[in-house]
Amino acid sequence: MMRMVLLGAPGAGKGTQCKRIVERYGVLHLSSGDILRNERAKETELGKKAESYMDSGGLVPDEVIVAMMADAVEETGESGFVLDGFPRTVNQASQLDNSLVSKNKQIDIVLNLKIDDRLVMERMTGRRSCPKCGAVYHVKNLKPKVEGKCDKDGAELVQRPDDAAEVVATRLKTYHQQTEPVADYYRENGNICDIVAEGNVDEITSLIFEQLNTFDKV
Ligand code: AP5
After folding, report:
1. CATH code of the domain covering residue 112
2. 89-130 pLDDT, tens per residue?
3. How many domains does the chain have?
4. Is 159 within a domain?
5. 177 within a domain of the structure (yes/no)
């Protein structure tokens, strides 16, 4: 029943690792980016509001995100979950805490994936994903069996528009200015552990599971 947050720069591997955490610990995966992309695909008001912020590499305003994620968290009921991409500002983090406390809940553990900016650029510009099932690949590091096709459903893989190099540079700047302070917030108000996320996917998964297993036994 763990409630977790996975923090980290764009391309730190949050989505990749969340899928493995879900498989191993049976928690629900709540990705703010995936929810926003889904809203955009359905052309909802929320999706339309988010569009310009996402495409330019900025952050969608807090009031929009906090309400959206409060609904998503509410739907988890008593299940455990892992938050991916939220909170991304100190204000989002404190509002999340307030809303959990009012329900006698809390974030049990925050995993902070740390990665150098130069690796981020390589990972983001090489990322490809499946528009049908959401599986994520990389042109060099995590190749599909057949080039350009999803292993699970054979769909044509696509590149996210915000993975263009100039947008990634803005996303990184936004991360350093607005999201890095969230780690300090949790250092003061929570249980956070830093994980160097520069090795291969399996190595990072082992480091994460080590932390989660230790926590699980406490
Ligand atoms: P979002 O979708 O959350 O993007 P992000 O945080 O920038 O994270 P990414 O999904 O790009 O990266 P990731 O860390 O999940 O990496 P991945 O595992 O895919 O947000 C998009 C936008 O929505 C934001 O810019 C913002 O506008 C808006 N938004 C979302 N949440 C918001 C919020 N809370 N507040 C305001 N606005 C919000 O890996 C990347 C690539 O690297 C893949 O190809 C993968 O195969 C590869 N890879 C992964 N791990 C490794 C490894 N260990 N070694 C080699 N390659 C690896």
Report:
1. 3.40.50.300
2. 999 999 999 999 999 999 999 999 999 999 999 999 999 999
3. 1
4. no
5. yes
- Structural domain of residue 11, as residue ranges? 3-116+168-216
Cβ contact 135:152 at 8 Å: yes
Nearest-atom index, ligand 1, CA of 61? 36
Q: Ligand 1: does its nearest atom lie under 6 Å from the Cβ of 88?
A: yes
Distance 84 CA to ligand 1 centre (A): 9
Residue 76 lies in a domain: yes
Q: Is the CB of 65 under 6 A from ligand 1?
A: yes
Residue 155 lies in a domain: no
Region for residue 15 given its phi and psi (left: phi exceeds 0; alpha: psi -120 to 50; beta: otherwise): alpha
pLDDT tens digits for 175-189? 999 999 999 999 998
127 counts as catalytic: yes
Task: Say which of 3, 88, 123, 128 is annotated catalytic.
Answer: 88
Alpha carbons within 13 A on the beta-carbon side of 142: 19
